[in-house]
Fold:
Amino acid sequence: MNKFGRACWVLFFINVFVYPCHARGSGFEGNLVFLANFENNWDVVLWEGSDKPAKRLTKTPWDEKDPCLSPSGNRIAYTTTDGVLHIIDLESGKTNQLVFEKCPGKWESPSFSADGKKLVCSYFKPEAKDRAVLGVIDTESEKVEFIFDQYCPQFTPSRSPRKARLAYACTHCSSSCGKIIQEIWVADLSSGKSRQLAMTNAHCQEPAWSPDESEVAFCADISGNFDIWSADAKTGELTQITDHDAMDESPSFSPDGEKIAFISTRSGRSGIYLKALDTGNVNELKPFANNDIEYRELDWK
Amino acid sequence: MYKRIFVLLCWFLILSLSAVHAGGAGVHLITPDSQDDIIKNIKVSDDSFNPSVDEKIHINYELVRPAKTTLRIFGPDHERIAEPLKDKQQKTGKHRIPWDGRDIDGDIVPDEAYFFTITARDEEKEIKYVYDPCVFSGGIEQDLSKASINDQAGTIEYRLSEMARVRIRLGISGGPLLYTLVDWEPRTAGRVTEYWDGWDKDHLIRLRRHPRFKMIISRLSLPENSLIAYGNKQTDYFVYSRKISRPEKKEHEPPPADSDRNVSFHAQIPRIKDRSPEVIMTFPQKTRTEDGAAVLMGKTMVRVELGDQYKEFFREMKYEICFFLDGEFYAEEEAGYSPYNWLWDTSRIEPGTYILTVNLASFKDQIGILSKKIKVNNKEVK
Structure:
């Protein structure tokens, strides 16, 4: 074999063995929770650091949705496609289903408060179509409180990690504008006041706070297709985090605030990616060896 | 062998990096208002033709001065289909260029609307004159307000003032869309007749008789001098567009979204993506089928998936999934995905036979439709 042959073999070795190991292990600290499609349906998976194996937490024939880790990392809240809210206690392994007799509609997108005692969710009254409102649930007493008297439907709430602040998406306009205009709003729960974070004139979804609460990341079609953006929590100044023709969505900051994890279809299927905010490097995470498994909706604590 | 591969890869890299774009001469775009054009009186012999029976269409124009001329035919997704004339020195005067409806590979093109560009290089003035109808025409969307339905003949009739793409949606006002009868297909100007038997897409609902029946006819104007090919029963455009030979560099782009002509976003989405997607709905936990209806009971599952050929495109889009029971809104998933497994508690509805309709609606106005007959029988639930 001549030198070109040897060079080809070296490249082959790097591509097949070294790179995937690097990609699997180059990863992340903390806990990632997300959904994976194993058998034509979506289940909750917990990954406690890239040096550990990812664990499948649910195994149902229907879909789990919107998984969210508690700040201490000992509980995961999620919903199912019948609109029911569930909480897994990771220490006991038990799952508690929350049923609200007085609120029989659909619950979505839970997010824990800083002390882990409350959950804020989107709530859809029966036959209310897409007119969601935000409800706060006390996880101990299971009491429900509706927090805003705001006309626009409110989706994908995200509680800030320290203060009593909340980011959420608010639909301003849909068919009457010829496109969806959904903006990110930020509320101070202690004063009850809410304000629009930025003026994007686009479809914004899935806000996520940075650990120091200085930024709110979200996905939006500002540039024509869905990318990850970030807005300064004070000024609303926008920064584009990803710029790719594929769909990038579901952003979540790393616990140290130096990386953002997100879901992207850039490989032709829906996968988990990490972007280092200092270098701009992006790498794919592979929780399982099976490359056919697709992933959605992640949360990183 | 490795050396040869290595050298080939290097050449490929060098050629890719050193690709020289055509340039040098100034460019003058020909529009209906432009002056001193070198090309005039651009017209086609007919607006539609059947290449499958050897019909040809002729592109006529007049050169004011001699010029090196190129004529290119493009498909609906702005892909080059044919090049009947390439850098040909032509004299002053009238010219008539035939196109036989065959593409670069010699195959008859599928039924669709095509447009052409003419580039004439005036060597004296060192100006390249470009006729590109997409710059100043086409892409304007409008709903038609007048149409008539003849129930006995099973027809819908309407008039088009100019050739256009047409979409006809049929459904229930305040309820589901039940049929996309015509999905942005090209039609010539004048009176147009479409055929419809009065039923929904899945032939389960006598839609025409529904008290809240609604029809929306939308038109999207085509670029000036478009050529509509018809009669090809062998090849569907969506299959064809995947296999067509394409040059590495894209030679034509759709008009920009910020165009001051108010171009519809439908004119910017490729045809292959801008259509009603195939939706599959199954009941993985059904016990049996009675009279063509899946028998469902208790908490059961409804699985909604996109057809294989649509998954690739819809993966890049946001969409919602809406369920309707006998034409009335029942449930919705705002952030849709595929496969979607809905956990449905049927004990909340009365036992009986229903039509369950799913609308998978993208936020860019493509809606997939499927209706199925179901039988809810909760008496058997223990």
In short: Chain B is about 10% helix and 45% strand.
